[in-house]
Amino acid sequence: MTGSPEITHAIPPTPTEALEPPPLWFNVPDGFFALPLAATPQERAERAHEFVRGLYSRGDDRIWEPAAPYYAGVAELMAETGVSYAAMGLFSTAEEADDSEAQGGPQTGTETGHEASASMAQCAFTVAAVPTDQALGDTETVTQGILAILSSVPHNDARWLDLPCGPAVSCVTLTEYKLNPEVTATGEAADLLTGQIQVHVPFPTGPFTAVFTLHTASTDYWTEFCDIMSAILRTVSFTEAPA
Questions:
Q1: Which pLDDT tens digit goes with each residue over 23-60?
Q2: Is there a contact between 131 and 16 (Cβ–Cβ < 8 Å)?
Q3: What are the pLDDT digits (tens) for 180-225?
Q4: Which of 6, 12, 19, 34 could form a disulfide with 23 if both were Cys (CB 3.0 to 4.6 A apart)?
Q5: Where are the domains of the chain?
């Protein structure tokens, strides 16, 4: 699985109904396409058109026009759940990637577009700010509580993390689904294994916890997705970096 080391800056969390969370900064690698989350329908529509042009980079208006309203609707539903950032990650797994790297440029989702989906590893990535009851700066107490709750659920692999920004809890789950013949390419029943990495990072600046979630059905590349999540988490900050 290949991707460019270029970094894009993610947006800070948006307000919840009860209380606005403090700012949060993090970086994501190239290959992530941010969904058009926005406060107004007009903004969502504008961002949706930009999103589909990046996602279907080799398409045209015949693809972009019907796709944009769909993703604008998805963004509206996600925003209502408290999600502040959402993106699709597309990474090339084609054997030709080795040749591309030899010529000085790895294949990424941006370059290959959605048309190469047969040779792409895909994931969904979201960030949400969830209200939690903690005193200012007391991140260890809430982290211990989250770890205790997640560890009590069977099949959860919950662990304490020490990130550059402070303590956190990671929770990994693998789930296997039985697919009916009607929804498979072969017309036969099949098993689908999916994996989820969810990391809870308490804010030291307010009563919130940031929840980073990466979900994928491309479990053949599980190690690579773990590395991507780890790289993102190392950039999390609750104070803005100097310009």
A1: 999 999 988 988 888 778 888 888 888 888 887 777 88
A2: yes
A3: 887 777 787 888 889 999 999 999 999 999 999 999 999 999 999 9
A4: 12
A5: 7-233
Which residue type does 164 have? Answer: P
d(CA 67, CA 229): 28
Q: Say if residues 94 and 116 touch (Cβ distance below 8 Å).
A: yes
For 122, other C-beta atoms within 10 Å of its C-beta total 18
Write the DSSP symbol of residue 165. Answer: T
- In Å, what is the CA distance from 95 to each residue of 1, 106, 187? 9, 11, 27
Are 170 and 146 in contact by the 8 Å Cβ rule? The answer is no
Three-class DSSP category at 186: coil
